[in-house]
Specification:
128 residues, alpha+beta, Hypothetical Protein Mth938, Chain: A, six-stranded mixed beta sheet, three-stranded antiparallel beta sheet, 21% helix, Mth938-like domain-containing protein, NDUFAF3/AAMDC, MTH938-like_sf
């Protein structure tokens, strides 16, 4: 019986530094991903967010689910810095997660340094 192509949610089961970013995606662990990503303790996930989307708390459910393993969340907001909504900051703070919005490039560089230092870091990175 012939089956069609099965499309699964993008997920890399591990922690890896971001090797490159730009052209609408990211490269990590010798793979590439087009679109935005969430880098969490449980792995790297495709994230359906584009620059300019409202950053409401519902987009960060995976982050909040792993809040016990995260101390710092770096939010790469695209080409320029955007402030995080108060509701989102409150939700993160309730999980003892400090959040820091910055351009995606700055977030990638900071994430790689903190990951190399074995810090409890996560990143939400909007593709540029």
């Amino acid at each position: 019986m012939a089956r069609g192509i099965e499309i699964r949610e993008a997920h890399f089961p591990g922690r890896a530094p971001i090797e490159a970013y730009g052209n609408g995606g990211f490269r990590f662990a010798d793979m590439s991903h087009r679109g935005s990503i969430l880098c969490l303790p449980s792995g790297i996930y495709g994230w359906d967010v584009t620059e300019g989307d409202a950053l409401d708390a519902s987009l960060f459910e995976k982050v909040l689910a792993e809040a016990g393993d995260i101390e710092f969340l770096l939010v790469g907001t695209g080409m320029s810095i955007r402030f995080l909504p108060a509701e989102l900051k409150t939700s993160l703070r309730a999980g003892n997660v400090s959040s820091d919005p910055m351009s995606t490039g700055a977030a990638v560089r900071t994430y790689n340094v903190m990951l190399a230092e074995s810090r409890a870091v996560a990143a939400a990175l909007i593709a540029v």
